Amino acid sequence: MSKESILIIEDESDILELTRYNLSKEGYNVTGAASGEDGLKLARINHPDLIILDLMLPGIDGLSACKLLKNDPKTSDIPVMMLTAKVEESDVVSGLELGADDYVTKPFSPKVLIARVRTILRRKTKEPVDQDKPLQIHDLLIHPGRHEVMVNDKPLNLTLTEFKILHFLARQPGWVFTRYQIVDGIHGEDYAVTDRAIDVQIVGLRKKMGTNGKYIETVRGVGYRFKD
């Protein structure tokens, strides 16, 4: 069975070759580009299954490249994983807001990188989620149509917003979402609520979930994700 194709856009040759080597060992078809300009050209020509994109690139930087990729109909559907050595959390948030799917901070373990790659590619091949279908994850049974959550056959008394947040996160376990993405996901764009209001809702939700509240992880400076 043929493996998926991956494009790495990274200007540091040692990191590019190390990443290429480890992914090739796993059977992926890997190509590389040392600049944002070259990476964008290869993405449009080859349409890879995944792009691993460094944020600090010469010329077109990673955030600009991500924006161009997501705004181009030819490449907008390609998942993007960001590589970042920056300590500024705002860069990660900006990348996720632009449409990136995940991020890895340098220095990174090849095993962690490969696991993240597998997860993204597995999600990409999944059939679209039926948003009205009951969802079983960990000890939770979520009924979207009923707006009901059961834990070991016992109902949780959640507000509508708490339910929407839980369902939104649990539908895509492992994904990191910024606060604004959660607001957009549960209320729609341009909804008049501050992103910090999500923090208040999460606190209440975790409290009601008891020990299951541990499945909602805080990603410091970025947002939240549901443990898979």
From TrEMBL:
The keyword Zinc does not apply. Residues 132-228 form the OmpR/PhoB-type domain. Coiled coil: none annotated. The keyword Transcription applies. Residues 132-228 bind DNA. One of its GO terms (biological process) is regulation of DNA-templated transcription. GO terms for cellular component: cytosol; protein-DNA complex. The modification 4-aspartylphosphate is found at residue 54. Residues 5-121 form the Response regulatory domain. InterPro entries: CheY-like_superfamily, OmpR/PhoB-type_DNA-bd, Sig_transdc_resp-reg_C-effctor, Sig_transdc_resp-reg_receiver, WalR-like, WH-like_DNA-bd_sf. Keywords: DNA-binding, Phosphoprotein, Transcription, Transcription regulation, Two-component regulatory system. It holds the Pfam family Trans_reg_C. GO terms for molecular function: phosphorelay response regulator activity; transcription cis-regulatory region binding. This is DNA-binding response regulator. It comes from Candidatus Schekmanbacteria bacterium RBG_13_48_7.
